């Protein structure tokens, strides 16, 4: 018979290790990529695979670990709530900062082939 | 090997990886040529630090560390929105 706590703990540990590796990959990408709009892709790896997935994993570990006492349900629930809030709020923040950077020209689009957003803004179709 | 030793061993192996990635994010924060670069690096540091706090809470068996992770993640979101507002309109507030 398979112990249910061991199943939860093994799945959670796999997710935490995977998230740590993705955090490392995202940090190398954020350091090596050439400009701001390319670095946003590395940030996306760091938020979804590097923060959402290990938070779910920590929740599963806390739910399956009986040595944590009665407070393990509090830890599991708070980890799930953090993961859900991060899943909704992190893309909104990235989108807001990218839009502001393009509109205020704080980050120059340097190796540029085509920029339809800037053309539309010059024609006055969007603000 | 019982469950407690297994969990502590595997999660202790994840600590150096998180530490190295936080150090690499902060190098980008100090180098960052433009303001949006510094803002997204602070975001990444906050998200990695929130996960790190929850991992430490399981290792140290202290549930009081978990609400700090929620507050840290919400601060990163508030920083995004405030800096975006400032870059677009050059003012804070409403």
Which short descriptors sum up this protein?
heterodimer, A: 127 residues, mainly alpha, Helix Hairpins, 4 helices, B: 94 residues, elongated, transport (chain B), transmembrane helix (chain B), cell membrane (chain B), membrane (chain B)
Could you explain how this protein is built, in words?
The complex is a heterodimer of chains A (127) and B (94). In chain A, 77% of the residues lie in helices and 0% in strands. Chain A has 127 residues and is mainly alpha-helical. Chain A has a single domain (4-123), classed as Helix Hairpins. In chain A, helix 1 (4-32) packs antiparallel against helix 2 (36-64) and helix 2 runs antiparallel to helix 3 (72-103). Chain A starts with a helix and ends with a helix. With 94 residues, chain B is mainly α. Helices cover 84% and strands 0% of the residues of chain B. In chain B, helix 2 (35-60) runs antiparallel to helix 3. The mean pLDDT of chain B is 90. Chains A and B meet through helix 1, helix 2 and helix 3 of A and helix 1, helix 2 and helix 3 of B.
Measured by DSSP, the beta-strand proportion of chain B falls in under 5%
Question: What share of the residues of chain A lie within helices?
Answer: over 70%
Domain unit count of chain A: 1
Q: Which H/E pattern describes the elements of chain B?
A: HHH
Count of DSSP-assigned helices of chain A: 4
Instruction: Assess the beta-strand content of chain A as a share of residues.
Output: under 5%
Amino-to-carboxy terminus distance of chain A: 63 Å
CATH third-tier fold name of chain A:
Helix Hairpins
Q: Regarding CATH, which class of chain A?
A: Mainly Alpha
Shape estimate of chain B: elongated
Low-confidence stretches of chain B: none
- The 3D shape of chain A can be described as elongated
Transmembrane segments (chain A): 6-31, 43-65, 71-90
Protein name (chain A): Monovalent cation/H(+) antiporter subunit G
Organism (chain A): Ignisphaera cupida
InterPro entries (chain A): PhaG_MnhG_YufB (IPR005133)
């Amino acid at each position: 018979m398979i112990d249910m706590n061991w199943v939860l703990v093994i799945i959670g540990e796999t997710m935490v290790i995977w998230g740590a590796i993705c955090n490392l990959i995202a940090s190398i990408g954020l350091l090596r990529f050439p400009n701001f709009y390319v670095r946003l892709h590395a940030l996306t790896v760091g938020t979804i695979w590097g923060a959402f997935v290990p938070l779910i994993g920590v929740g599963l570990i806390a739910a399956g670990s009986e040595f944590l006492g009665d407070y393990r349900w509090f830890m599991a629930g708070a980890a799930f709530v953090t993961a859900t809030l991060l899943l909704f709020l992190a893309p909104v923040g990235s989108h807001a900062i990218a839009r502001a950077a393009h509109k205020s020209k704080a980050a120059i689009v340097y190796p540029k082939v085509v920029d339809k957003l800037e053309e539309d803004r010059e024609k006055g179709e969007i603000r | 090997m019982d469950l407690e030793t297994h969990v502590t061993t595997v999660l202790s192996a994840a600590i150096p990886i998180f530490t190295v990635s936080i150090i690499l994010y902060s190098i980008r924060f100090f180098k960052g040529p433009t303001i949006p670069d510094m803002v997204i690096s602070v975001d990444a540091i906050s998200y990695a630090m929130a996960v790190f706090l929850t991992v430490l809470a399981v290792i140290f068996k202290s549930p009081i560390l978990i609400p700090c992770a929620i507050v840290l993640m919400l601060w990163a979101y508030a920083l995004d929105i405030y800096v975006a507002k400032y870059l677009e309109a050059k003012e804070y507030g409403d």
